[in-house]
Structure formats: structure tokens, C-alpha cells
Amino acid sequence: MDIDKKQVRDTLVVRLAGELDMMVTDRLRQELDETIDQGRVRMLIIDLERVSFIDSSGLGVLIGRYKKMSALNGRMFIVGAKTSVEKILCFSGVNKLIPLYKNEREIISN
Amino acid sequence: MDIDKKQVRDTLVVRLAGELDMMVTDRLRQELDETIDQGRVRMLIIDLERVSFIDSSGLGVLIGRYKKMSALNGRMFIVGAKTSVEKILCFSGVNKLIPLYKNEREIISN
Amino acid sequence: MSVKNYVQFEFPSKPENVSFSRSCVGAFATQLECTLEDIEEIKLVVSEAVSNSIIHGYDNQPNEKIRIIVSIMDEGTLEIVVQDFGKGIQNLDQAMEPAFSSDPARMGMGFTFMKSFTDELDVVTAPGEGTCICLRRTFSRPDEDDFPEGG
Amino acid sequence: MSVKNYVQFEFPSKPENVSFSRSCVGAFATQLECTLEDIEEIKLVVSEAVSNSIIHGYDNQPNEKIRIIVSIMDEGTLEIVVQDFGKGIQNLDQAMEPAFSSDPARMGMGFTFMKSFTDELDVVTAPGEGTCICLRRTFSRPDEDDFPEGG
Ligand SMILES: Nc1ncnc2c1ncn2[C@@H]1O[C@H](COP(=O)(O)OP(=O)(O)O)[C@@H](O)[C@H]1O
Ligand SMILES: Nc1ncnc2c1ncn2[C@@H]1O[C@H](COP(=O)(O)OP(=O)(O)O)[C@@H](O)[C@H]1O
């Protein structure tokens, strides 16, 4: 799993690439939490365009970060999920907590 | 393995797609021999562009058809092999018996 | 029901083998008449079952044994058995409830996914002995098949 | 030499399992530092060994057992063992010669490929008992590795 982070003011965009399963959850959780805490992040955008697989371990990290952002009065979005990943996000109800958008522009225009 | 055959006069062009291993050798050998015999084929062109894998079982079918075509005073060419397949064709020396070309046009212009 | 083809594999309970094992089962399943979407769903349920063995069955100990047996039955049924020899499940009814997890950092969606993307789910477990998950899914039935190839 | 990770799998001697088994070994090998070209070569040698077990070891009988054990050693060595319980090889020196085949329709290149694309090839065989092919290939040695991760 590649984790690419870019922060502008209080917005953190994280581009993930690879498979989002238990192999990577610890590292992902840790990297995200550190950056959120240190950078005083209030808007977290996770870009899943290059994620080819997600299971409940991966969903757990996303939901955990959603809870963290909510506790910080921040917001979280997911962008770019491909059909197979989007299906799992919707099936699990994750999309009801973390809104899904096609891309970053779509977030701004909403 | 998909086997797509097209004959114009005594020239038979066979487009293969898939993996060329022992799973498909019997069927491929039989289909080629039948068409060569029935169609009085004198020029056999095997297009490997969509073949992603070949092993010695696959090479065996090619060499067998080369021998058949030689016995019929015919000729045989291979076109479109991708790098990984070409490597095996060259490593095994098959290319010294059956010339490799990029595409059908290259055969004509040579 | 007779077995047309099968593969049995065993590997240690390492996180990197979750990806490997779901890929393998997915590759094997391509021998059935199924779509890419079906394969994705099969990979998901395997991922859930194997992750559970590692995380819950073996408490993330990386050198314990996991066994998978995948079988293709004559009528187009794929059977996937995932077995560990770990701590087992004390309260299976509770474990199967959606959103239940013994680990607060997890979603408790594993069994829900396994049930949702298969036709049948059987669990045999005993505390201290391990857990065996059997998943079955049928992709084509003989009566849908105009030209049965025979066994 | 200690084993970092391994997978053992068993399947029947059916032609469709040649493709499956080389894909699986290829997928497992991605855990090593190796290129796509390396993976292609690994798939080739597995294809040769498994095809030989089916064709020569079992005379194309589809319901005999083939076992593969793939191990990743600490120093970046991949070991692939392909085992059948078939008829074995009478004259191993002859069998290993390039272009020798007991079947006139075949090329006799299998062992040549196995030798060429690995660092080590060991064959243990006994007539009537079966054949066990052990292939080893090292992808990175510790002294080439600036940041060894440890065992
Ligand atoms: N192989 C197993 N060994 C021991 N306990 C298990 C196993 N699989 C599942 N469990 C138990 O069942 C619970 C529910 O599993 P699951 O629905 O997959 O959710 P999650 O993995 O998110 O906890 C787990 O929290 C665990 O307590
Ligand atoms: N697993 C095996 N069981 C029995 N005989 C084998 C086995 N593998 C190889 N052989 C023998 O060794 C010969 C050479 O094998 P190989 O170099 O792979 O060429 P080919 O498969 O084209 O015959 C075979 O023709 C066969 O007689």
C-alpha cells in the first residue's frame, strides 16, 4: 500500500494505492492519526482511486478516522472509489457516514 | 484459449488468445492440422499478440506445425509475440526455424 | 454432489498471506462460469475468513497454521473451507451478529460479508481447538446449462 | 537458512491446474523483491514441472495428487518443490539432456527451462514412487540490501 499525503491549510488529502486489508491497517491508522493530530487537520479526504480491494479491516480504519474527525468537529470524504470498492462502501453503510464523491472538485461544488 | 482462423487462398492466419500450455495443446494441434489438411494451406501465420504465456508444451505445438508445413513444402511465420513470449521463442531457438515478425505487413515487405 | 476439482493449501498466519490466499482462491474460481464481480466477492469472503483466523483465532501470532480447501462441485458450486487451530469462538450466536466484534477497533462486519456474498455459511468451532468456516456458492445449476459437459 | 514464509498446496493432476498453480506460485513470489520478468520466469518453471508430473508422472491421469511447497528464505531465496507420486524417472541423466523427451510430440525442453531460469535444480526420483523437483532461485542477497529488515 502506497500512502501519499498532501496538506493545504487544515485539509489533508490522502491518496492510497494498493489493497486495503489487515496487512496495512496498523500503518495506515498510525500515519493518518499522526498527521491529523500534528497538522490540526479539520477536513480529511481519502482518495481511493488506485485502491483495487477493500475488506472489513480496511473499512474499519476509515470508520475509525471518521469517528476521530467527528470528535474534532472536522469532516471526512471519500473520492474516486472504483465500482468494486464503492459497492463494499455502500453495502456496509460506510457511505452514509462518509460521503462518497467522484473527485475533489465534486466536494467543493456541493 | 481462443483460436481464431482466417484463410485467404493458401494462407492461413491463426490468432491465438490466452495461455499456451498443455491445457490447450491437443485442441490447438488438432484444429490446426485439420485446417491445414482440408484447406491445402501452404503458408501458416500464427499471431501471438494476445498470448500472455507460453511454455514448452506450447512451443512443441508450434514446432510440430513447422515440421508439418515443411513436409508440405509450405512456410510458417509467427507475428506479434509480446516481449515475454518472444524471449521464450528465442531462448528455445524456435525463432531460428519459424521466423518472428512484428505483424503481417512485415512478412510481406520481407 | 461430486468434486470436479479441488485445491488444498496451508500457510502460516502472516498478514501478507491474506492477500495471497484470496488471490489464489480467486484464481481457482475462474475455472467456474463466473463474472469478475463474482471473483471480487469470493476474494472478499476469503479475506474476511483468513483475517479472522489470524486476528481472532491466533491473536496475530504469525507462525500458526491456516488451511484452505477450495472445491468445485459438479453442479457449479464453489466450496471454500477456511480452517484454523486457534482459540475458537466461545459464543457463536453473538459472534455472527452484525456489528459484533470482540475488538473495539474492528467493525464486526466479517461474518455479515461472508453470509451476504455466499449461499451457505457453516461454522464449526470449539474453544481452544479452532474454527472451521465453510462457505458455499453456486454459480450455475445444471438446469441453466444447455450443454452439460458431464462429470 | 530459515524460512520466512511458505505455502504448501495439493491438487489433482488436471490440465487446468497447470495454469492455476503457476499463477499461485507467481502470486506468492511477489512477496520477494523481484521484477515482473522474474515472476514470468518463475511461472514458466512451475508450468514445466507441473506439466511433467501430469504428462509423464501420471500419464495424463487426472485424479492423481500433485504437491507444491513454496518457501521464501531469509536471504531472498525462493524454493519451489514440485512433487508427484507417479511413475518416476528411470534414467535421470538422459531425462535431463536438452531435447530429450520420451514423448516424440514434445520438445524435451522442460528440464532445460527449469535449469536455465533457476540457480539450483535438484531432482529426487524413484521408479514407481514418484518425482520431486526442487528449484531454488535467489533474488537479493543480504549484502546487496542496504536496509536489511531482519528475520
Ligand atoms: N477464526 C476465529 N477465531 C476466533 N474468533 C473468531 C474467529 N472468527 C471470528 N471470531 C469472533 O467473531 C467475532 C465477529 O467476527 P466478524 O464478524 O468477522 O467481525 P470482526 O472480525 O470485525 O471482529 C470476532 O470479533 C471474534 O470475536
Ligand atoms: N515428473 C516426471 N515423472 C516421470 N518422468 C518425467 C517427469 N519429468 C520428466 N520426466 C521424464 O524426463 C523427460 C524430459 O523431460 P523434459 O525435459 O521436461 O521434456 P518433455 O517434458 O518435453 O518430455 C520426459 O520426457 C520424461 O520422460
Give a quick summary of the entry.
The complex is a heterotetramer, with 2 copies of chain A (110 residues) and 2 copies of chain C (151 residues). Chain A has helices spanning 22-38, 56-71, 83-91, 94-97, 104-108, and strands at 2-8, 11-20, 43-54, 75-79, 100-101. By secondary structure, chain A is an alpha/beta fold.
Bound molecules: adenosine-5'-diphosphate
Give a count of the beta strands of chain C, DSSP E runs of length 2 or more.
Answer: 5
Total strands of chain A: the figure is 5
Proportion of residues in β-strands of chain C:
25-35%
The outline of chain C comes out as: globular
The chain pair with the largest interface is:
A-C, 16 and 21 residues
Instruction: Give helix and strand order of chain C, one letter per element, not per position.
Output: EHHEEHHEE
The overall pLDDT of chain A, averaged over residues, is 96
First-to-last CA distance of chain A: 30 Å
From the alpha-carbon coordinates, what is the Rg of chain C to the nearest angstrom? 16 Å
Strand order of the largest sheet of chain C: 1-2-3-5-4
**Largest beta sheet of chain A: what is the strand line-up?**
1-2-3-4-5
N- and C-termini, Cα separation of chain C: 11 Å
Oligomer: heterotetramer
Shape of chain A: globular
What is the residue-mean pLDDT of chain C, rounded to a whole number?
93
Largest sheet of chain C: 5 strands, antiparallel
The unreliable regions of chain A are: none
Largest sheet of chain A: 5 strands, mixed
Topology of chain A as a string of helices (H) and strands (E): EEHEHEHHEH
Weakly predicted, low-confidence segments of chain C: 144-151
